[in-house]
Amino acid sequence: MIVGVDYTAAAWQGAGIGRLTRELIRSVVELDRSITYRLFFAAGGLPKNSPYLHDLRQMCEQFPHVCAFPLPFSPRVLTIIWQRLRLRLLVEHLVGRIDVVHAPDFVLPPTRAHTILTVHDLTFLRHPECFEPSLQHYLVEVVPRSLDRADTILADSQATAVDLTSFLGIHPQRIQVIYPGVSEQFRPLPAEQTEAVRKRLGLPNYFLLFVGTLEPRKNLVRLLEAYHCLLNEASLSPLPDLVIAGRRGWLYEGIFDAVDRLGLRSRVLFLDFVADGDLPALYNLARVFVYPSLYEGFGLPVIEAMACGTAVVTANVASLPEAAGEAAILVNPENIGSIMDGILEALTQSEHLASIGKDHVCRFNWGTSAQRLLTCYRQVAGYG
Question: What does the alpha-carbon distance between residue 180 and residue 24 come to, in Å, rounded to a whole number?
Fold first, then answer.
């Protein structure tokens, strides 16, 4: 069996769907070496020293049944060709015969093969105000079209599966849920390793942590307002600083405006994007991880923080209770008081939450995810 995977997000994106795709595909590649994998991706403009391209080359060298197919187009040009103009430049014309095409980033390329489509969330329908308008309009147009063509649809959570049925009328039997896993690197680390990262990144001794893109959906303005209330109202001593790690996304300006308006410049540290190798230490060093997002398809940072032994506060909406189970403090993300109270509770129960969190995340591992995906490949191709 030959499986073609659209590896574009994995080749370009450090976080989010890119990281999910890299972890899942590497795990399924390691699991079954009887399948040939052809990983195709838009390579035009991709830096030759990209760490994700380096990882892909290493995977191809290690596993002879994996082949990389860099396509001579930028992601934007390939999107225009396949989705805007809808030209019949079949994947098969670019990479050869394929039995199954897996598109892990919302849209299917043109192909005659059996198809699997991963839809991670429906933010563009559930919270269109949190999207850049042109991207939101594009997804509204192309995602339903891809869903109609897909033989099987994958979702990261039961919550997203329900959304696909409720908002787009997808029959539940067409949807399979494959939870993300937690990489082995996310674990409690020795002090000498974490302290080296603390020094290099200039981290405070005692802090709350948020990890994610700086954009409206992540609800950072309310987090800052809740943090401001915590500083002024809580009787704890010492009071933690707040570290926000993530690249600037769409409409990020309001976040920095809130820092100035609330007088928090001396208490909030922005780290920009943190490399994958530093993330485990960052989670380890935080006293509480706070993730009050308005909507997530799963919420991978929640379980990564738990795996590192860090107490978690997250929102009681969408898939986040599914990811968190009973091992986190759940808050109303639209209520500043609820967020503040959740942080305060987590600070006072951090050791207990850390303990139950490490037990909870054992159910999320990439080996199980890969086995489910492998079964899906075989079923769609008619081998299972």
Answer: 8
The set of long-range contacts for 194-197, using a CB threshold of 8 Å and a minimum separation of 24, is 194/281, 194/284, 194/285, 196/281, 197/278, 197/281, 197/282, 197/285
Backbone angles phi, psi at 369, to 5 degrees: -60, -45
Tell me the longest C-alpha to C-alpha distance in the chain.
66
User: Each residue of 57-110: pLDDT tens digit?
Assistant: 999 999 999 999 999 999 999 999 999 999 999 999 999 999 999 999 999 999
**φ, ψ dihedrals at 155, nearest 5°:** -130, 155
Give me the pLDDT at residue 151, please.
98
Q: Please, how many CA atoms are within 13 Å of residue 180, restricted to the half-sphere of its CB? A: 30
CA 161, CA 300: separation in Å to the nearest integer? 17
Using only C-alpha atoms, what is the Rg of the chain? 21
Residues 327-357: tens digit of each pLDDT:
999 999 999 999 999 999 999 999 999 999 9
Closest C-alpha among 86, 72, 82 to residue 105: 82
Whole-structure pTM value: 0.95
CA 279 to chain centre: 14
How far apart (Å, rounded) are the C-alpha atoms in residues 349 and 316? 19
Q: Annotate 77-129 with DSSP letters as a single string.
A: HHHIIIIIS-----HHHHH---SEEEE-SS-PPP-SSEEEEE----HHHH-GG
- Going by the DSSP 8-state scheme, the letter that residue 47 receives in this structure is -
pLDDT in tens, 149-171: 999 999 999 999 999 999 999 99
CA dihedral 42, 46, 52, 57 (to 10 degrees): 80
Domains, in order of start, for the chain: 2-181+365-381 (3.40.50.2000), 191-363 (3.40.50.2000)
Identity of the residue numbered 189: L
Neighbours of 64 (CB within 10 A): 9
In tens, the pLDDT along 298-308 reads 999 999 999 99
Residue 383 confidence (pLDDT):
81
